[in-house]
Amino acid sequence: MASSGAAAIIIGNEVLTAKVVDANGPLLIQRLREVGVALRSLEIVPDEVDAIVDAVARARLKARYVFTSGGIGPTHDDVTVRAVALAMGRQVVRLPVMVELIQQRSRERGLEHVSPETLRLADAPEGAELLAVAGGGFPVLTVEDVFLLPGVPQLFRVQLEAVLSRLSGSPVYLRVLYLGVGESAVAGVLDRVALDMPHVSIGSYPMFDPSLDYQVKVTVESGERDSVEEALARLQEGLPTGSVLRTG
């Protein structure tokens, strides 16, 4: 298993068939960046056990933390728990503390009977732990740094914050150059600086929106502020005169 970073798996036929537009992946990308945890990959797979097993295995090779979204409800297509257990060589067990919580919530709603389908929410890979969620929501199910989050965006958001509060990341420093020339005029300079400073990530993004006042956006980022500033200075020195409209 990799020692750093995160990988994400969005699970659901509804996403792949355009019945639902995924909101959890973009949120996860944004929040991981904000807390300084690098996202190595994001994959969308159907509600199929084999597909999820394969995706989890790939994700654990790429990253320390694995986030899944979807497939942990009480219906027939909620197979994520079983798939994650298979991927990790574990049995599926029923957690007594979750059974008690489900029964308590049912009583609070005036329900005396809990259906067998609802109790599926208490199933987990053997050895799984529960992370408390602020406000008393259902806890996060986790096993060996694999976090099984719900697909419903409102629930996903709350549980994601509970997980991120426990992770430690490194800040990423970012500077931006807005250029008034095309990529072909600056590619050579970008290549030289990127080659000289491989520990700094330099990105070049051409824009084709006539309402913008620039043609290319160049990003410079690293975990080291001084390296970012040095790379920025090298780029500004090497770029064609007058091509830098502004920095950010």
From TrEMBL:
Transmembrane segments: none annotated. InterPro entries: CinA, FLAD1_M, MoaB/Mog-like_dom_sf, MoaB/Mog_dom. It comes from the Bacteria. Residues 7-170 form the MoaB/Mog domain. Coiled coil: none annotated. This is MoaB/Mog domain-containing protein. It comes from Cystobacter fuscus.
